[in-house]
Amino acid sequence: MKLLPFLYQVGGSHLTHEEDASSYLVTSDPPVLIDCGTPKGLDVLQKNLKLIGFPASSLGL
């Protein structure tokens, strides 16, 4: 879910798993994931990242 031109919500109880907190992607260079979720929603989170053009392999540390 795009929140701002440079910020997406890619995880949370309504997006990945009911027990997840929110996860955000900042589309900087390199892109940065702020993930406050649980491992239970990881597969869906990775799919959500790919859907918006940022596979997990593109993320910075």
TrEMBL record:
Protein name: Metallo-beta-lactamase domain-containing protein
Gene source species: marine sediment metagenome
